[in-house]
Amino acid sequence: MAGSEILLILAFVLLFFGANSIPSIAKTMGKAIYQIKNASDDIKDEIKKSGVDIKKDLNISELIKETEEEIKQPMDQMLTDIKHTVNYEPPTKKRVNVESGDNEKIENEGD
What we know:
This protein is mostly helical and 111 residues long. It is 72% helix and 7% strand.
């Protein structure tokens, strides 16, 4: 606002309210501005606090992911071991013929 606009507003205030009420109006305006400032500071503080809470939540989700990987890795290894056990094919046995020295392949003889 320019200086002339402020003077014009002050002139209207003097005309409408009179010189006696200007101090009480100024006091009321000061209180209102103070309350607005406090309210805006409170809002800023709440926004900052919620930002910190969100950041903590993000750190918790990262911790959960890390823990999930720590649990999942041994489970995957166990699953792989189980699959190998289920699909297990024992090695074929060889019998050595002592008399001739020939190797004979023996298929699984009733385990």
